[in-house]
Amino acid sequence: MHISCKSALSIRMKTSFLPLLALCVIAVVPIGKVSAATLSYTNTSTASGLNNFTNLNLSKFDSDLGTLTGVQVTVISATFGGSFIIGSPALDQDYEGAAGRLTIRGGTNALGFTTIGETLYNVTTTPAPIVTIPGGATNNFIVDQLVAISNSVSSISNSFWAAYEQSGGGTISFESKNRPDITISGGDFFLNATAFTLETKRSVTYSFTPVPEPSTIALLALSGLGAAAFAVRRKFNSPS
């Protein structure tokens, strides 16, 4: 059987590029749109009843992991509890009720977090008011736990995202405080509300597009080789 040079070349090209074409098919199939991912960090802090801010640190997004596409800060819970002491140096005092005023804000500048400020929450105590405290005596009051805030979510504008990410990671700071509001009638009195606490649990969640893994990059390269092989094959098979 006689085979022309052109026909022989065509057969050889078809045979030699079949593995590359198979590689092209194998490489292209697994490669689609890179899936979005999320990463969350959670921390808890306890503010005393001294009306002072307490810091809470959360981790920044490590920009080496990918491209940030969303940031959410969540106050998972803000819970009053603890106790306080009322003393009466001389005259009788009447304890009539208690409340806590909480403030939650971003401790780092320009975080885009909406401050929850000076919000008043009435609490119940043991013993319950009204309680008369005789002159020269003190009384300890247990604050019954009250969950004032639950799962309050703030979506952060993308104009603030730069404050939430850093190559290699880092920390961002939030703050909270409790200003007790305790009603006592009578003469002079002594109040120790240091142990009247506000515990806040917060989280930050990052949505991002991950950096492709090395295996994915390799598949992309093989896909390119397969496409090039297919183009050369078409060239050799085209009419002269």
Structural class assignment: alpha+beta
Would you identify the regions where 5 or more consecutive residues have pLDDT less than 50? Answer: 1-31
Question: What is the total number of structural domains?
Answer: 2
Query: What would the average pLDDT be, to the nearest integer?
Result: 83
The number of helical runs is: 2
- Residue share in β-strands: over 45%
Radius of gyration: 34 Å
| Quaternary organisation of the protein chains | single chain
Order of helices and strands: HEEEEEEEEEEEEEEH
E-strand count: 14
Distance between the first and last residues' Cα:
23 Å
Shape: elongated
Task: Report a brief summary of the structure.
This protein is α+β, with helices and mostly antiparallel strands. The protein is built from two helices and 14 strands; from the N terminus they run αββββββββββββββα.
